[in-house]
Amino acid sequence: MSHADLDRRTVLMGSLGLGAAFALPDAAFAEEPWPKGRQIKLVVPFPPGGATDVVGRIVADRLGQIWGQTIVVENRPGAGGNIGAEAVVKAEPNGDTLLIGSVGMATNPFLYPKLNYDPVGDFAPVSLLAMVPNLLVVSNQVPVKSVKELIDYARQNPGKLNYGSSGVGTSIHLSGELFQRMTGTKMVHVPYRGSAQATQDLIGGRIDLMFDNISQALPHAQAGSTRALAITTAKRSPVTPDYETVAETVPGFDVSSWFAFFVHRKTPPQIVAKLAADVQAAVADQGARDRLIATGAIPVGSTPDELAAFLASETRTWGALIREGGIKAE
């Protein structure tokens, strides 16, 4: 800056007098970096208590500590996650409203004849938070104690067993669809608005089995309220090494739930970049990692580009299964 410029600024500030003194705090506030002074909200498109809610709150808690402010968590369940996603699309594209998305971001375009949002066109990917194995659990009233026994029983009683899920097109539902296809069995799907509600009916014996997120299912299995048979990932989980995998009986079976943060596509790139970096730091924090692992989740923390590529892969995989199976949202 030249001396002439400095002199002009000095004269200008002097002419503004006391009014400039009052204008300075407003100008300084306007230049404060996001998210300072903002009310940040995380939309969870499923009811409280399920894996989406649990993972979202763990990461939001640590993220809030990094920012020195509380993140408001708002549960907006319904329509397989569509209601929550629509709420974020309608919010101001300023980074203040986050969505924790899951496999529905990949499956819902194939399940519903019309969506009021585009999972790719309307959202900017932020970071993949965690992968969560599903756990195959049965009611204590079902007379099976292994995957093989379940397959044998289902084959001998086609259409008699029913399995619950947190909604059509969720990984919990699609695990059951894939299991039936790969084992030649026939079961009845019973969708709920969330896995917590389905779990209560499983404990009560009103449904027979679930391929539930391990974070939701494990405590009930350990307490003896349900019976765990196997996890759905290709390899055994370090959290539950004694549980066999479905793949040990059904080769090639491999399913994981996943959870990621998204924001409105029109969110300024610099805010998306900061948010992505801070979320990665939150997931990398040892305290947050320990809490996630304790639920059975496998912490990830990715870049936006990595999440975009992952979503594209999931869309191809599950889109093919949904089309071939003629699966539609009820």
Task: Describe the model.
This is Tripartite tricarboxylate transporter substrate binding protein. Pfam families: TctC (PF03401). This protein has helices spanning about 5-15, 20-30, 50-65, 80-90, 105-110, 145-155, 170-185, 195-205, 215-220, 270-285, 285-295, 305-325, and strands at about 40-45, 70-75, 95-100, 125-140, 160-165, 190, 210-215, 225-230, 255-265, 300. It contains twelve helices and ten strands. Strands 1, 2, 3, 4, 5, 6, 7, 8, 9 and 10 form a ten-stranded mixed sheet that branches. The radius of gyration is 24 Å and the shape is globular. The model is unreliable at about 1-30 (pLDDT under 50). It folds into two domains: about 40-130 and about 255-325, 3-Layer(aba) Sandwich (D-Maltodextrin-Binding Protein, domain 2), CATH 3.40.190.150; about 135-250, Periplasmic binding protein-like II (D-Maltodextrin-Binding Protein, domain 2). Helix 3 (about 50-65) runs antiparallel to helix 11 (about 285-295). Helix 3 (about 50-65) links the parallel strand 1 and strand 2. With about 325 residues, the protein is α/β, with parallel strands linked by helices.
